[in-house]
Amino acid sequence: MYLGLDLGTSGVKALLVDDDGYAVGSADATYDVSHPAPGWSEQDPGDWVRGVGAALAALRNAHPQAYGAIRALSFSGHMHGAVMVDAAGSVLRPCILWNDTRSHIEAAAMDADPVARVVSGNVVFPGFTAPKLAWVAQNEPDIFARVARVMLPKDYLLWWLTGRYATEMSDAAGTAWLDVGARAWSDDLLALGGMSRDQMPDLLEGTDVVGEVQTARADLALPPTCKVVAGGADNAVAACGVGALGDGDGFVSLGTSGVVLAGRDRYAPDADTAVHTFCHAVPGRWYQMGVVLAATDSLNWLSRITGQSAADLSAALGDTLTPPGPVRFYPYLSGERTPHNDAQVRGGFTHLDIASGPQDLTRAVMTGVSFALRDSFEALKATGANLPSALAIGGGSRSDHWTRMLATTLNIPLERPDEGAFGAALGAARIAMCGDTGADPASVMTKPPIADVIHPDAALVSAYDDAYSAFAGAYPKLKAMP
Q: Which of 7, 95, 154, 333, by CA, is between 20 and 30 Å from 77?
């Protein structure tokens, strides 16, 4: 048996699979995010520990025999978070999360140094780890002086389980401290933020074994020889779960954030596009992605202010796709990454009318998020990435209407996996399997069964193209607003 743990922003999912990769059971646990100031987003790492413990207890109770046969486990984790610990391993402050934009000034300063993009292959975004530490140095100097180690969120759990400070390439690539082409820490990048190599965890590949579960975690009742495998960043591990390892393979994710991801067989950065070029969670591979900070989060925001559930808002649009309506929405609720790298821009509606109702707003939100994903899709194509079709994953892809709209906006077929496909949790279990057996990732990380294929509506492609052009042209006006 193999265990995949998906550490998300709002909760953790645990998936138990057999050695053929079939799901045996799953469990999850939730926790909260704190927003102590505008643009801030933090979490207590202790919540992750409690969440993992609760999910594993539920799995153990439901599947005691299978749980006792676990040979290895691994993690998927949300990226860019900064967990700072002292020399004793005590957490110094809440983790600053991926969607926290407080360090935009520090990020811009780092990005202005020519070495940053050349060595890392990426724009230094405010959400990355390095500018977060620079912000702490400037604003919380007493804490910064005590930082002995910095870990990514999932790597805090690796340390908690094994006692070893370790990370792997895909998560390290999102720190702005890694030479992404060489797959090694860069002393030049570390120096930009006043950090040193001895504050960094050991650097592994995602399929490398970190160690065995330490005796201090005996309360989890995992087998004493259970291996802990390094794992990877959430989108890289989700790609492992859906078989997107190399050129021509990829996915579009309608989750809390939105992602268009393409696997790459080689390192081909183009930082000026604001596309992320990161190491994959398997050796010798990379991936590129464009990121929309508020995808289903935009619909959840509309749900909160209308008092209607996101599912009800979506269902009210019916099954028939229509041309884009006059009401337009710009989903920059937390700023935007690709292609704008703008933590300060904010979204909004235009062309509202006294007759506008919830359906008009819902259609506008879905359309605006689809157009933002088209921005990322166009940026990916500019790097040379090729996606003639893509998998559609994430909670928003359960909406037939939204998936059809997105397929029409991108003008490519979108394949939806079976509901039994567990994405990042399955990818983590597959990584655990490769780490334990030494199997070739390409033979294990295959595409899941496809439930259906949503094709573009050919009669509406032109209308969506025209509306997208207007959407793309509106950004400079939004940026200029006070």
A: 333
d(CA 212, CA 373): 40
Token pair 């037939």 is at which residue?
A: 400
Q: Which of 285, 162, 235 is nearest to 393 (CA)?
A: 235
Cis, bond preceding 114 (omega within 30 deg of 0):
no
Ranges of residues in the chain whose predicted pLDDT is under 50: none
Supply the Cα-derived Rg of the chain in whole angstroms.
Answer: 21
Tokens of 72: 């290895």
Residue 480: exposure state from Cβ atoms within 10 A (0-12, 13-18, ≥19): exposed
Indicate if 19 belongs to the active site: no
- DSSP string over 54-96: HHHHHHHHH-HHHHTT--EEEEEE-SS-BEEE-TT--B-SPEE
How confident is the model at residue 420, as a pLDDT? 57
CA distance 329 to 185: 40
pLDDT of residue 245: 93
β-strand pairing of 227-233 with 72-77? parallel
Contacts by 304-307 with C-beta closer than 8 Å and gap 24+? 306/358, 306/361
| Nearest partner of 133 among 149, 144, 120, 122, judged by Cα | 144
Secondary structure class of 237 (helix, strand, coil): helix
> Distance from first CA to last CA of the chain, Å, rounded?
56
SS3 5: strand
User: 36 exposed, middle or buried (CB, 10 Å; 0-12, 13-18, 19+)?
Assistant: exposed
- Exposure of 243 in the CB half-sphere (CA atoms within 13 A): 15
Rounded CA separation 34/56 (Å): 25
* 80 known member of a binding site: yes
**CB contact at 8 A, 175 and 129:** yes
Query: Exactly one of 100, 155, 208, 234 is catalytic; which is it?
Result: 234
CA–CA distance, 146 with 124 (Å, rounded to integer): 25
> Tell me, what's the pLDDT at 421?
57
Going along the chain from its start, the domains and CATH numbers come out as 2-237 (3.30.420.40), 245-420+449-480 (3.30.420.40)
Q: Which of 23, 5, 14, 21 is nearest to 60 (CA)?
A: 14
3-class secondary-structure state, position 101 = coil
Sequence-distant (≥ 6) Cβ neighbours of residue 153 within 8 angstroms: 7, 43, 45, 48, 77, 78, 81, 83, 95
Report the predicted TM-score, pTM, of the whole model to 2 decimal places.
Answer: 0.90
